[in-house]
Design goal:
By secondary structure, the chain is an alpha/beta fold. It contains 11 helices and 10 strands. The chain has 2 domains: 66 residues, Chemotaxis Receptor Methyltransferase Cher, domain 1 (Orthogonal Bundle), CATH 1.10.155; 195 residues, Vaccinia Virus protein VP39 (Rossmann fold, 3-Layer(aba) Sandwich), CATH 3.40.50. The mean pLDDT is 96. Bound molecules: S-adenosylmethionine (SAM).
Length: 286
């Protein structure tokens, strides 16, 4: 008979395994989460308990089981224009000076990174904000923008790339105007129009990996993801972001996250009841 409850020792082994492979740090009270999220994998792999499941995962050279464990442990909660102010900040504070640089010929492309893009609502909201900005600013076109959307979760990325959303997902924060302009009805679902999809490159990326391979970014959205990580991993990510931001680059995090005590490469600014961060080289840095 399968032992579906997790012992304290099994939890400790799996908790460390999960943190090692995706950075998600689970407190002692999260044993139930491991139990519920990994229950079906436990059955599928034929393991009798979480101890043998851990041993299988740890010994298994193939990335498949590891990816599925990570996928199961990620929380992909998201919605359109989440919190609104980040997109207002993008539209009124960040895009105008960048667009001016394009107009003056001092730059050709503006690069924006959605660092934990989940099922696509964040990068598509960025793309819609840009499309609207382009309509209001002649001479600036969607081709001037490159949006990179990354996530560790293969299933979230699959949904994001497909760009198909059911009525319940669409209802979560997408204004009618945006739905009617940027989506097409397809039976019971709404599909993102190609003109919007083409603006985004989706890529699987683990934030534990060096960020430098992504190239320089002008704006980084890193929202509702660091909340799951340890202080040292947060510090690693935010200082990595500082390294890849262009000299006039900006970082947007969520209101439940903070840079305080972690990095001093940023200056906090406020707009539209929200905070955003400008890259600013720490005093005394070379
Ligand atoms: C709660 S969602 C946030 C989605 C979006 N940024 C938003 O604000 O609505 C968190 C996302 O972080 C991703 N994630 C967790 N650990 C990660 C890691 N180590 N590298 C990259 N993405 C990760 C999860 O797969 C999940 O899709």
């Amino acid at each position: 008979m399968i032992q579906e409850t997790i012992s304290p020792n099994e939890f400790k082994l799996l908790r460390d395994y999960i943190e090692q492979h995706c950075g998600i740090a689970l407190g002692e009270e999260k044993a139930y989460l491991v139990e519920t999220r990994l229950a079906s994998l436990l059955v599928e792999t034929g393991c009798q308990d979480f101890g043998s499941f851990y041993r299988l995962a740890a010994a298994n050279g193939s990335p498949t089981l590891r990816d599925r464990i990570v996928d199961a442990m990620t929380t992909n909660e998201t919605l359109w224009f989440r919190d609104q102010h980040p997109f207002e900040i993008l539209k009124t504070k960040l895009l105008p000076p960048l667009a001016e640089e394009v107009r003056s010929g001092s730059r050709f492309r503006i690069r924006i990174w959605s660092a934990a893009s989940s099922t696509g609502q964040e990068p598509y909201s960025i793309a819609m904000t840009i499309q609207e900005f382009c309509k209001a600013n002649p001479g600036i076109r969607p081709e001037h923008f490159e949006i990179l959307a990354t996530d560790i979760s293969p299933s979230a990325l699959f949904l994001a790339k497909a760009g198909r959303y059911d009525a319940a997902a669409i209802a979560r924060g997408l204004p009618d105007y945006h739905r009617n302009t940027y989506f097409e009805p397809a039976g019971p679902v709404w599909t993102v129009k190609d003109s919007l999809k083409q603006m985004i490159t989706y890529r699987r990326f683990n934030l534990q990996d060096p960020l430098d391979s992504l190239g320089k970014m002008d704006v980084v959205f890193c929202r509702y993801v660091a909340i799951y990580f340890s202080e040292s991993f947060k510090r690693q990510i935010y200082s990595g972001i500082a390294r890849i931001l262009s000299p006039s680059g900006h970082l947007i995090i969520s209101a439940v996250e903070s840079l305080r005590g972690l990095v001093d490469d940023f200056e906090a600014l406020s707009h539209a009841n929200g905070t955003y961060y400008r890259y600013s080289r720490p005093k005394g840095a070379p």
